[in-house]
Amino acid sequence: MDIRVQSIRFDADQKLLEFIDKKISKLSKFYEDIINVEVALSLEPDHKKNAKVRVAIPGNDLVIDRTADTFEDAIVDCADALKDMLVKAKEKRYGM
After folding, report:
1. What angle do CA 23, 96, 38 make, to 5 degrees?
2. Which terminal CB of the chain, N or C, has fewer other CB atoms within 10 Å?
3. Residue 9 region, left (φ>0) first, then alpha (ψ -120 to 50), else beta?
4. Has residue 53 been placed in a domain?
5. What does the pLDDT look like over 67-95, one tens digit per residue?
6. How far apart are CA 64 and CA 59, in angstroms?
7. Is 96 domain-assigned?
8. What is the pTM of this model?
9. E strands of the chain, at which residues?
């Protein structure tokens, strides 16, 4: 699974990039056919942190957008929501 991270108007440090890789790579346990994942990190005007995650799976793209006090919290929220979405997509595709 290919994970690409884009930080908009700031440079993400290595610790944050490793955290994102660790959390997002766990999604492959719930849906094996993930093509790639794009993560866009941005700063909101009110000093909140925004994470937008796009997961490409065959026949569909799942997109989730979360805002939190830290990028880590936003990524965890995105990963939790995507886990549920991937399970539903897998059930729908494979009729489980």
Report:
1. 30
2. C
3. left
4. yes
5. 999 999 999 999 999 999 999 999 988 88
6. 17
7. no
8. 0.93
9. 2-7, 36-43, 49-57, 60-68
What residues make up the domain containing 13?
Answer: 2-90
24 belongs to a structural domain: yes
Spatial strand order of the sheet with 36-43 comes to 2-7, 36-43, 49-57, 60-68
Percent of the chain at pLDDT exceeding 70 = 99
- DSSP state, residue 59: T
C-alpha 66/C-alpha 74 separation (Å) is: 5
Q: Based on the structure, what is the number of domains in the chain?
A: 1
The yes-or-no verdict on residue 96 having pLDDT over 80 is: no
CATH number at residue 44: 3.30.160.100
